[in-house]
Every structure is written in structure tokens, then in C-alpha cells.
Amino acid sequence: MKDAELDRPARSAMPRSRGAISGLLLLVLGAWGALIPFVGPHFNFAYTPDQDWAWSTARGWLEVLPGVAAMLGGLLLIIAGHRVTAMLGAWLAALAGAWFVVGCQLAPLLGIGSPGDPIAVTERKQAVLQISYFSGLGVLIVFVAGVALARTAVRLARDVQPLQPMQPAGPMPPARPYYSGLVEPPHEVSPEALTTPAPRADEPKSRGWRRRHNVTEVQAPAGR
């Protein structure tokens, strides 16, 4: 139980480079969403009112707030060395992107106000303004945040530390040879077995020195 508790912070740790690219993209996209309503009129690419750095409540809620939230989420992804912090930044950026998409439709219900009308003569430029300011920007932020969330939510193989090999406590005993049923193990043969002839089956076994003495006396006359 104690080993699992000690290993839990290591499991949540991750390299800082894991969410750096996604965090940088979210930082740029959030800065675009928060600053373009104030800088766009200078390039004739804006919503009404057509004035530089003109503040309104609708711009604050619909553009500045989600842009700052996306920037904060990207910053958390860049500096995060912990999996939970990185996931928090990714979720914050995803919510900011979703608000860019649906904020204009919910603004009349919430009493926030209107962000204005696109300053464009053609319908093509109106569509470009709508995509660049709200819907397209929000979808792109949600996509990048989703990629970052997928990369930080899982553990990769390189995050797992290899186990150290276990050292044996003492010298290992010699391994015993294995013999199958078709191979007989070698038997040791004593030197006496090579010089002493094996007794015959029909020869009576001697029992003591008296038996050997009687056999010698019986065989002696036959030899003469």
C-alpha cells in the first residue's frame, strides 16, 4: 500500500514538452480572439463600431473573456509538468473555444448584448469575418485543446521507468542435468568391477571360510 502511494506522483508526472506545442498554439489563438476586435478596425476587418480599441460589454463577454481563457489554458499546458495541471489547461481552452462558437447565439438570452454587425460589402467577407472572429476560431481552439487533452490524459511507454534487475541473494546452486526417458544417465564404474569376474549363476555361493576349505579339498585330488 505504501509503495503504491509513493508511486502515485510519479505516475502523474509527465515531461513539459508533452503539451508545449499545443499550448503555444492555444496561446496564439486566444490572443487573436481577444485582440482582433480592437485591432481589426485599423485594417478594415472588424465588426461595428468601426473604431480602434472601442470597448463594449458584448466584446468583453463574447471575445475578450474566451480569448483570455484560451491563453490561460495554453500557458498551463506550456509550464505544466503534472498530468492534472495539463488536463485542466486543456479543458479550460476547450470550454473557451466552445464559447466562441455558441456565445453569439446565447448572448440575447443572457442579456449580454450584440457584438455588432460585420463591416463588409460582400457576403464572402461577412462569412470570413464570422469564421475568423467566432465560429472558425472556436472550432480550431476546441480541436487543438482536444489533441492536447488526448496526449496528456494517457501514459506513454517512455513515461514508465524500467524495472531494475533483481540481484540474487547468494550463489546459485549448480543445475542438475536433465535426462529424458530415452537416454540413461551415465553410471560410475568402480575399478574392482573391471578386474573381478562376475560369478556364474550355477556356481554355489560360499558361506564363510569353512565352505571354501571344503571345496578346495574336494577339487585337489582331481588335479592330481
Question: What secondary-structure arrangement, pairings included, does this model have?
Answer:
Layout: H1 2-12, H2 20-39, H3 57-79, H4 83-110, H5 123-133, H6 135-153, H7 191-195, H8 208-223
Helix pairs in contact: 2-3, 2-6, 3-4, 4-6, 5-6
Walk me through the structure:
The protein is mainly α. It is elongated and about 95 Å long. The longest helix has 28 residues, at 83-110. Helices cover 59% and strands 0% of the residues. The model is unreliable at 1-9 (pLDDT under 50). The chain has helices at 2-12, 20-39, 57-79, 83-110, 123-133, 135-153, 191-195, 208-223. The chain starts with a helix and ends with a helix. The chain has 8 helices and no strands. It has a domain at 17-155.
The string of secondary-structure elements, in order, is: HHHHHHHH
**What would the principal axes of the Cα set say about the shape?**
elongated
- Pick out the low-confidence regions: 1-9
Mean pLDDT over the residues: 78
Secondary-structure-derived class: mainly alpha
Helical amount among residues, as a percent range?
A: 55-70%
Task: State the distance separating the first and last CA atoms.
Answer: 97 Å
Number of β-strand runs: 0
Report the portion of residues in β strands.
Answer: under 5%
Work out the helix count.
8
Largest sheet: none
This entry's quaternary arrangement is single chain
Gyration radius (Cα, Å) is 46 Å
